Every structure is written in C-alpha cells, then in structure tokens.
Amino acid sequence: MISTRIVSAAVIVLGGLVLSACAQSSLRINPDFGRAVRQDVAAQIANPDAKYEGTPDPGSRGDRVGLAQKRYQTNQVIPPATMTASGEGSIGRAENGSGGGVGASTGAAASQ
Fold it and tell me: How many whole angstroms separate alpha carbon 112 and alpha carbon 107?
C-alpha cells in the first residue's frame, strides 16, 4: 500500500502545479506594452458621425462629370497641360542657381 506521506506529498505538488497555472507573469512586460498600437488603431478610425461647420462642397459636379464621360466615350479627351519646374531657357544656365561647382569661373574672370 501507498503510505500517507507519499499521497500527501503528491497532493501538495499537484496543488502547487494547479495554482501556478493561474499566476500571471509580468516579469518582462512594461505596463505601457501595446499602448502605441492602440493609439495608432484609434487614430486610423474615421468618425462615422463627423460634424462639419457649414455646408461642405460636393466632391464633383454632375454636369462636368457627364461631359468628361461623354468626351471619353467619343475619344475626345482633353489632354492635361504640360507643366515643368523650370523654363526652356534656363537649361544649362546658372540663372536658377545651378550650374556652378568646382572649377567654375565668373564671367569677369573668364574674359581676362
């Protein structure tokens, strides 16, 4: 037969294992853990009940959209205007602040 000491030791060990499973360990977890993620998620949620002052302008006008769709279907699309950062005459010149560098000389020094 099993002695009562072995049974009581087994009960104590099993009771300790059962109770240790319920313990929470916060040994390496900072109290702020996850706060940045929660703030980022909250910042990305739009307010579905947003209120704005005045009457907001619509995203587009229906008559203009209709004309653009008609031009698209008849292949008469108006091409967008070409835009550049600098004029044609400034390419290769120092008018826009570029063109200088090591070994560059001024006009007065080059004419001598």
Answer: 9
